[in-house]
Structures are given as structure tokens and as C-alpha cells.
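Example A, followed by Example B.
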Amino acid sequence: LRNSIKVFLLSAAVVLAACSNGNKIKISGEIEGREGNVYLERVAVDRSMVIDSMVLGGDGGFSFTTELPLGQSTIYNLRQGKDFIPLLVENGENVKVHSGEDMARSYTVTGSAESTRMKELRDIMLEGSAKMDEIRKLYYAASDDEEKTDFAKTYVREYNKAKQRQIEFIVSAPSSLVSLYGLY
């Protein structure tokens, strides 16, 4: 009986240790051409909170290991200054991020399918925003009302295209947390 209890307790300890390791995630990589602190923020509905930080290595390298709250998929931002990279991380993932100096626009992510989808959504949003910004500049530079009217119509068409692409993305995986993020 005593040996059975020891075996049971040892087995329970091994199972608990395995379960708790499943809640750990790792986010690592490089941000080229930058130095200083990089922050890992956990994103909540109403705010983001810094949960860890580190000084970028000489090669722009960083590495964070943390535990998911309640073991659930969680959205994080990898932030430096005003620039950030959104990530949706799940239990046990080892996410690798590589970024050029333009952190928000030129990054790749591997090791996390949902973080890859997050990047796809962000690319759609940034592309639409860039097109509308360019049209807005042309509108303000226009010299007559007819030109301004044409640019205004073009702006509305581009806005509708960008929204349509976002809707198509969201509808393609309606149960994904990335889709919820896109709606928000």
C-alpha cells in the first residue's frame, strides 16, 4: 500500500509538471538595426500591460519565456517605442520573430499559426491604410473642386475594398481569435 501511494504521488507530480510546462511559451528572435529595450505586453480588451522587458542584444536578439494566463491563447505585443508586432500565442508554442528596422511592416513570424494569421490581417490593414493615406495627400494637393471630387470617390472605393478584404479574412475563420481581433 505504501509503495502504491508513492507511485501514485510520483505519477501525479509528473503529470502536473507536464501540464504546467504546456502553459509556457517562448517568443524570441531579432530586430535588425535597433537597440535599446524591447517589451512584451499582454493585450487585454481595455489595455495592454508590460509583463517583461529586456535590452536588445548586439545583433538585435531577444528572448522571452512566460506562462499563458489560465493556459489560454493570449494576444501579446512585442513593442519598441511606438512600433509593435501583435502575436497570438497558444500553449507550448516557440514563436520566432525576425524584423527589419521598420518593425511594424517588415517582420516574419514562425512557430505559431495564429500569429502568422495575425500578420496576414495586419498586412491587409496596413496596405489599405497606406493607399488611403496616399489618396488623402493627393486630395489635399488638388487645385480644383473636380479633382478633389475624383479623389474623394477614389478614397471611398479604396476604403470599401480594404474593408471587404478584412471582412473576407474574418469570415474565412470566424472562430479564430484573430478574427475577433480584426472585428475589434
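Example B, a separate protein, is given below in the same form.
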Amino acid sequence: GYRSVYTSLKECRIIESSDQEADAEIDYFSAECPAREGYRILHIGGDSRSWLVIKSGEKTLIDLYTDVMRHQPGAFPFVSGDLAEWRYQGDSLVALIFRIAGSDLETDKIKSRLVVVRLDEKQTCVTGVAGTNEEARTIADNNNKACLSADEDAGK
């Protein structure tokens, strides 16, 4: 069976920040958030955007900047959820799900979606984006789902 374990994306340790710099040209930050099973999550941001970087030890498995920008639900996309959802199949960690949001410039409303990342030392990648938790879990639980390619429609 599949199960979820959650860690905070709000209780992160600041590594560096424009708040520490008197004359920073743009707002920026990097922070390390709680993670599982030897993985590390870095929450990186700058110029009103943010994304995650997933590491195993010191090795970067995936920098999700491009994926967050490509699948943005609106302008100035950012990691918006309070929690990261770690999906397990039995005792094996198979995926990470997190929420991104962005502004609809016409209505000024915030829109969001969930990003699903397959965790695999050989090929960690985004396998889908979803509108609901249930859809995201279905994508995460499909271990054979192909990685989304750069030329796929960002709305899928």
C-alpha cells in the first residue's frame, strides 16, 4: 500500500537571505527544510519567485526552477504550500508532492497546482502536475509514469 508522511516547508533554516545584506538589489533567500530518508530540500527564492532543490547528501538530484516556471499557474510562481508530502510504497520512498502558486494578472487572484516529483537516485524528475491532492497521489503512485519533457504542454 501507499502512504504519506508530511514535513514542513515553513519551518526551514535560513542559509542566506537579502535581509542579511544592507544593499541587496533584489530579494532572495535559500533555506533548508525538514526532509526524509537522507534527502535534503532547499527552498530557494529570488525576485518574488521560489522553487525547490532536492539533494541526496551534497548531490543535487533535481533543481526544480525550470519545472516550476514551466508549470506555473500564474505570474511570479512560488512554493506556496506549508507542507511537503512524501509518498511511500511500503517502506520505499517513491515521490514528493508540493504546491506552487502564481498570480492571475487579469483577476489578481492566486491560482495553485501540485507538482509531483519521482524520487529515484537514477532519474529524479517531475512526472506530473495536478489540481487536487487525489490526482497528485495517483500520479505519484504510478512508478512507471514517464518524466514530463520540456516540450510538453505546461497545462497537463
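On Example B: The radius of gyration is 15 Å.
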